[in-house]
């Protein structure tokens, strides 16, 4: 009788160990999501995970160019009279970030989690805008002030709303 209980206990222990191992395997297969960036205009907002990078590794120049050419990004309508609000996760702010407009820096890098820009800027030729649509990219840096390195890009299309 005692040996039967011992066998049952061993089987339960093996089954429990197997369940724990399977659970750890499933968890290790999950990718950690990249931080989110959000653009808000009035009462509308759009959020996205990184278009490229976002996992602390510095992106190569060729990869940056490819990512900035990607047109399959989320969009939001912008009334030029509204304020456009940019928000990033604290992890992105810690790495310092800047706003690019059509691939060119629009702001200096910052360690804040929130920035605002008048909507009219995104459709003004003086700032490099072309037409009624502008590609805006949030570029995460490497944590060093004024560094040109990029660790992640979050791109959005701003569409002029008349």
Which architecture of the largest domain per CATH? Answer: Sandwich
Q: Which structural class should the secondary elements be placed in? A: alpha+beta
> Which geometry do the CA atoms define?
elongated
Fraction of helical residues? 25-40%
Element-level helix/strand string? HEEEHEEHEEEEE
Strand content: 25-35%
Supply Rg.
23 Å
CATH level 1 name of the largest domain:
Mainly Beta
Cα(first) to Cα(last) distance is 84 Å
| Mean pLDDT level | 84
Kindly state the number of beta strands: 10
Keywords: Signal
Organism: Streptomyces phaeoluteigriseus
Signal peptide: 1-29
Protein name: DUF2771 domain-containing protein
Written description of the protein model:
Keywords: Signal. The protein is of the alpha+beta class. It has two domains: 1-30; 37-160, Immunoglobulin-like. The chain contains three helices and ten strands; from the N terminus they run H-E-E-E-H-E-E-H-E-E-E-E-E. Strands 3, 4, 6, 7, 9 and 10 form a six-stranded mixed β-sheet that branches. It has a four-stranded antiparallel β-sheet with strand order 2-1-5-8. The longest helix is centred in the first third of the chain and has 28 residues, at 2-29. The chain is elongated. The model is unreliable at 19-29 (pLDDT under 50).
Write the layout of secondary structure elements.
Elements: H1 2-29, E1 37-41, E2 44-48, E3 52-53, H2 61-69, E4 74-78, E5 83-88, H3 90-94, E6 97-101, E7 104-105, E8 114-118, E9 133-140, E10 152-160
List keywords for this structure.
162 residues; alpha+beta; Immunoglobulin-like; 2 domains; 4-stranded antiparallel beta sheet; 3 helices; elongated
